[in-house]
Structure to design on (219 residues):
């Protein structure tokens, strides 16, 4: 079989594009590609941001067995609404906002079903340390059991700030709220959390003194 070189520059460029993937080095190019339905752009969007979306969901919800399904839901929402993204450079914060909305919907769905879960520490995504001790595992289970009792908005702000360590500005953007509103939610959640945590043997030593919980609220 004889391979023939394309007879025109345009045909050559077209042929080359079939074998050389686009790297989408900028978020603007990535967003444009997604809007145009480029499969490579859609794949890159997922590869570039999936771990971050999973982390946001997991910090809010704990080791929810539906995390993978919820992550999929976040990206479906993103693909269906990406044309409304005004600033492509803010795509990470935009995805965080969709993840927060999806997590909140999950919390509300749980409560409508009137059920409560306890979570296993070794199922929480992005655990970088070695296998957790039984003590730490119990503390994590107790933490998320308490968070299940908090109002959704307070739980989300508290989890993103205290558990994930997210910046207040990022939380405000993700929650579509002002920084002052986010601070109030964290403060209320902290008071509720500490009151209940002091009644839990697995948490009392962690929260004794309270400094570790309140230290980062205003920064």
């Amino acid at each position: 079989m004889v391979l023939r070189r394309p007879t025109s520059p345009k045909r050559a460029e077209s042929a080359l594009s079939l074998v050389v993937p686009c790297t989408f080095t900028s978020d603007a190019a990535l967003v444009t590609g997604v809007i145009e339905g480029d499969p490579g752009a859609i794949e890159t969007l997922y590869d570039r941001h999936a771990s971050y979306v999973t982390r946001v969901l997991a910090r809010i919800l704990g080791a929810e067995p539906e995390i993978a399904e919820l992550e999929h839901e976040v990206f479906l929402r993103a693909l269906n609404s990406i044309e409304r993204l005004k600033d492509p450079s803010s795509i990470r914060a935009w995805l965080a906002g969709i993840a927060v909305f999806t997590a909140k919907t999950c919390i509300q769905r749980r409560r409508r079903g009137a059920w409560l879960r306890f979570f296993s520490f070794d199922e929480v995504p992005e655990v970088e340390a070695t296998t957790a001790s039984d003590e730490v595992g119990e503390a994590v289970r107790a933490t998320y059991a308490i968070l299940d009792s908090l109002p959704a908005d307070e739980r989300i702000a508290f989890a993103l700030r205290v558990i994930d360590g997210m910046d207040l500005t990022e939380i405000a953007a993700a929650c579509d709220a002002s920084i002052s509103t986010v601070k109030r939610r964290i403060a209320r959640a902290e008071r509720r959390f500490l009151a209940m945590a002091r009644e839990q043997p697995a948490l009392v030593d962690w929260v004794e003194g309270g400094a570790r919980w309140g230290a980062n609220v205003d920064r």
